[in-house]
Design a protein that fits this description.
This protein is mainly alpha-helical. It is built from 22 helices and 13 strands. InterPro entries: Choline_transptr-like (IPR007603).
C-alpha cells in the first residue's frame, strides 16, 4: 500500500515528458463531459418554460400601483381608475390595530381617488349642503341615490368623516403637524369630529398613520429608489460609459506603455486614496461647530435616508480610518514586493505583446457584457413576474369578536356584508396568494430561477475565460508568430469551446453555482434567525459562511486554470483541473512571485478607475460643485446613483482588466508546461520568447537571494538555454 502511495505521489510530482508532436492547442479533439452538457441543455429548456409560465401568470402592476379594497389598481392606464392614482382610507384610525402589522392590511375600506381631501368635513353635515355633499361623493362608493345618512354609513358606502390629507407614496395620510408646545394638529386643528358625534384629539390619528407607514415602509423606500433611477438613469449610463472609455484607454496604453502605465497606476491610486483622506478630514473638521453632528452612529440607528449619516462627524471619522488603513496596506505591500513588482511588470509587458497579436481580445469583454446583460435581464423579469403571479385574496375584517373574522371571502360570491352575526364586518382585499398547484410550488420556481441565474452567469464567465485562454495559448505555442497562429484566434477558440467543451464549461460552472446557492441559503437562514439565535448558532453560521466563502474562492481558482488546460489539450474538466492543480503545485513559488503579484497590480488599476469615476459621481450627484447644481437631478437618495456607478465601474474595469489577467494566467501555465516539457537544449528548445526567458532569469535570481535553492535537474543553466525564435 505504501509503495502504491509513493508511486502515485511520484506520478503527481513528476514533470511532463517531452512530446515532439505537441504544437500548442490541439485541434483534433472530441466532445467532453457530454452528460453535463445534456443536463445543462435540459435545465435551460426548463428555465425557458418557467419564464413562459411566469409571464403568463404574473402581473407587474401589483408592485407599481396601490391596490384598493376590490383588488383594483389605482392610476393604471387604460382602466376606469386611470385618473385616480391615490389610495384613500375610510378610517385611518383603524390602522392602529395590531393586526395591521401581522396581516399588512388596514381593516377599513380603501378606494382610489383623484386627489386627497383638503378640508374637515363629516357626512352628517355634508349631507345637508348640496355643494359639500357633491365634494364628499368623491370619496364614496357608488349607489348613494335615495339613501339616508344612516343607510350610507351602515352600508359602508362613505367614510364618516374627512380630514385634511396629503399624498405620500400614492396614499392619502392626514396632514399632521406639531405646535411649539408639542401638541399634535391636523389641518391646524388639535381636535376634530369623527363623524359619529365624538370630538377627538388629533393625536389619535398618529397611531393609525404610524402602523400604516410601517406596513409600506419597505415599499416606500423601494419606490423612492425606483424614482431616483428614473430621474438619473441617463446620468448613470454616462458615468458607466466614462468608466468603459477610461478602462479601454488604460488597456490600450498598457499595450504600448506597460511599464510606465503600471507605475502611473500605482502613483495615482496612492494619490486618489490620499485625496479621499484629505476630503474626509475637511468634512470632519467642518462639522465640528454643527449642532447635532456629535451624535454617535449607534444612537442614530438605521436610517433609510443615508444622507443623514453624512451630517455626523463619526461617519467621516470612520471613512478616514478605513482609507488610511487601505493606504498604509498598499504602501507596505509596494515596499515589500518592490523586486517582485519589477518582475510582474515585465510579465505584463509580455502579456502586452501577446495582446498585440490578438487585438480582438480587447473587445471580447463587450460580448461577455452583452451575454451577462441578457442573463440578468431574463432573471430579473422572471423574478418580477413570479413574485406577482399570485391571486388577490379577500378576508373578513371586523373590530368586534366574530367567528368569521380573518376568513377568506369573495366579494362577488359571498353573502352581502356586513354579516348578520358580525354587524361591522367587511370583505376586503388582504394580500396576494393562491391555493393552486402552481402557487404551492411558487417558492420552488423562485429558487430554480435564482439557481439557473447563477449557473448561466457562471457559464458565460467560464466561456469568456476558455475563449481567451485558447487564443493566448495559440500565441505562446506558435513557432513563428504570427504565421503559425490562426487567422482569427478569438473566433477559433470560441468555436472550439462551444463545439467541444460546452459540457466542461457547464460542469465547472455547476460546481461553482451549487456553492454560491449554499452561501445564499446560509445568508437567508442567518437573516431569518436574527434576534433569536444563541451564541452557539451564531458561531456555527459564521464558520459555515466563512468556509463556503473560502471554498468558492478556491473553486474559482481551480476552474480558471482548468479551463486553460481544457483550451490547450481538449481533455475533460476533471482531468484538466487535476493537471492544472498539480502543475501549479510543482511551481508554487512562481505562482506567488509572478502570478499573484501581477493580479495585485491589475487590481490597483481597477481601484484607480473606480476611485476616479466614484469621486466624479459623488461631486456631481451630491451637488457639492456649483457648476453641476442646475444640471444634477433632484433625488431622494443621491447615494443610489453613486453606488450604482461605483459598482458598475468596478464590473466594467474588471471585465477589461480580466483580458490581461487571463493572458497572464495562460502565459504562466504555458510557461510552466514549457519548462517541464523542454530543457532549452538544441534538441528541446523552449517555446518562450527571449523576453519571457529573461523574466524567468530575474525571478530565479530573486528566489535565490531570498531563499537559496538548487536548480531542478531538468532546468539547465542560462548559458545553455536555447529559445525557439
Amino acid at each position: 500500500m505504501l509503495q502504491g502511495l509513493l508511486s502515485h505521489y511520484r506520478g503527481i510530482c513528476e514533470p511532463k515528458k517531452y512530446d515532439p508532436t505537441f504544437k500548442g492547442p490541439i485541434y483534433n479533439r472530441g466532445c467532453t463531459d457530454i452528460v453535463c452538457c445534456i443536463l445543462f441543455i435540459i435545465c435551460i429548456l426548463g428555465y425557458v418554460a418557467v419564464g413562459i409560465l411566469a409571464w403568463s401568470q404574473g402581473d407587474p402592476r401589483k408592485v407599481i400601483y396601490p391596490t384598493d379594497s376590490r383588488g383594483q389598481f389605482c392610476g393604471q392606464a387604460g382602466t376606469p381608475l386611470e385618473t385616480k392614482p391615490l389610495l384613500f382610507y375610510f378610517n385611518i384610525m383603524k390602522c392602529a390595530s395590531p393586526m395591521v402589522l401581522l396581516e399588512f392590511q388596514c381593516p377599513t375600506t380603501q378606494m382610489c381617488v383623484e386627489k386627497c381631501p383638503d378640508k374637515f368635513m363629516t357626512l352628517l353635515k355634508a349631507y345637508t349642503n348640496k355643494e359639500d355633499f357633491k365634494y364628499y361623493k368623491n370619496f364614496c362608493k357608488e349607489g348613494l341615490e335615495g339613501l339616508t345618512v344612516t343607510q350610507i354609513l351602515s352600508s359602508g358606502l362613505c367614510p364618516a368623516m374627512l380630514t385634511p390629507s396629503k399624498p405620500f407614496t400614492r396614499r392619502c395620510f392626514p396632514a399632521l403637524g406639531q405646535k411649539k408646545g408639542g401638541e399634535i394638529t391636523v389641518g391646524n386643528n388639535s381636535k376634530f369630529d369623527d363623524g359619529e358625534g365624538n370630538i377627538r384629539d388629533a393625536k389619535d390619528l398618529v397611531a393609525g398613520v404610524k402602523n400604516a407607514t410601517v406596513v409600506i415602509e419597505a415599499r416606500q423606500v423601494a419606490m423612492k429608489i425606483f424614482e431616483d433611477y428614473t430621474q438619473s438613469w441617463y446620468w448613470i449610463l454616462i458615468g458607466l460609459v466614462i468608466a468603459m472609455l477610461i478602462s479601454l484607454l488604460f488597456i490600450v496604453l498598457l499595450r504600448f506603455l506597460a511599464g510606465i502605465m503600471v507605475w502611473v497606476m500605482i502613483v495615482m491610486v496612492i494619490l486618489v486614496i490620499g485625496y479621499g483622506i484629505f476630503h474626509c478630514s475637511m468634512e470632519y473638521v467642518s462639522l465640528k461647530s454643527e449642532a447635532g453632528s456629535n451624535v454617535t452612529l449607534k444612537d442614530l440607528g438605521f436610517q433609510t435616508d443615508f444622507s443623514v449619516y453624512l451630517h455626523i462627524r463619526q461617519t467621516w471619522l470612520a471613512f478616514i480610518i478605513i482609507l488610511a488603513i487601505v493606504e498604509v496596506v498598499i504602501i507596505l505591500l509596494l515596499i515589500f514586493l518592490r523586486n517582485r513588482i519589477l518582475i510582474a511588470i515585465a510579465l505584463i509587458k509580455e502579456a502586452s505583446r501577446a495582446i498585440g497579436y490578438v487585438m480582438s481580445a480587447l473587445f471580447y469583454p463587450l460580448f461577455t457584457f452583452a451575454l451577462l446583460s441578457i442573463v440578468i435581464a431574463y432573471w430579473a423579469v422572471t423574478a418580477v413576474f413570479l413574485s406577482t403571479s399570485n391571486q388577490p385574496i379577500y378576508k373578513v375584517f371586523n373590530e368586534t369578536a366574530c367567528d368569521h373574522s380573518r376568513k377568506i371571502c369573495e366579494p362577488a360570491v359571498s353573502p352581502a356584508f356586513p354579516l348578520a352575526e358580525c354587524p361591522d364586518s367587511k370583505c376586503l382585499f388582504a394580500f396576494y396568494g393562491g391555493e393552486t398547484v402552481y402557487h404551492k410550488y411558487l417558492i420552488g420556481l423562485q429558487f430554480y430561477n435564482v439557481f439557473l441565474f447563477f449557473w448561466c452567469a457562471n457559464f458565460v464567465t467560464a466561456l469568456g475565460q476558455m475563449t481567451l485562454a485558447g487564443a493566448f495559448a495559440s500565441y505562446y505555442w506558435a513557432l513563428v508568430k504570427p504565421d503559425d497562429m490562426p487567422a482569427f484566434p478569438i473566433f477559433s477558440s470560441l468555436g472550439r469551446s462551444l463545439r467541444y467543451h460546452t459540457g466542461s464549461l457547464a460542469f465547472g460552472s455547476l460546481i461553482l453555482s451549487i456553492i454560491q446557492i449554499i452561501r445564499v441559503l446560509l445568508e437567508y437562514i442567518d437573516h431569518k434567525l436574527q434576534g433569536t439565535q444563541n451564541k452557539c448558532t451564531k458561531f456555527l453560521l459564521c464558520c459555515l459562511k466563512c468556509c463556503f466563502w473560502c471554498l468558492e474562492k478556491f473553486i474559482k481558482f481551480i476552474n480558471r486554470n482548468a479551463y486553460i488546460m481544457v483550451a490547450i489539450y481538449g481533455k475533460n474538466f476533471c482531468t484538466s483541473a487535476k493537471d492544472a492543480f498539480f502543475l501549479l503545485m510543482r511551481n508554487m513559488i512562481r505562482v506567488a512571485v509572478l502570478d499573484k503579484v501581477t493580479d495585485f497590480l491589475l487590481f490597483l488599476g481597477k481601484l484607480l478607475i473606480v476611485g476616479l469615476v466614484g469621486i466624479f459621481a459623488f461631486f456631481f450627484f451630491s451637488g457639492r460643485v456649483k457648476a453641476f447644481e442646475n444640471t444634477a437631478p433632484n433625488l431622494h437618495y443621491y447615494w443610489v446613483p453613486i453606488l450604482t456607478v461605483v459598482v458598475g465601474s468596478y464590473l466594467i474595469a474588471h471585465g477589461f482588466f480580466s483580458v490581461y489577467a487571463m493572458c497572464v494566467d495562460t502565459l504562466f501555465l504555458c510557461f510552466c508546461e514549457d519548462l517541464e516539457r523542454n530543457d532549452g537544449s538544441l534538441a528541446r528548445p523552449y517555446y518562450m520568447s527571449a523576453s519571457l526567458h529573461d523574466i524567468l532569469s530575474e525571478n530565479k535570481a530573486v528566489e535565490e537571494t531570498e531563499e537559496p535553492t538548487q536548480s531542478s535537474p531538468h532546468q539547465p543553466d542560462d548559458q545553455h538555454v536555447q529559445l525557439k525564435q
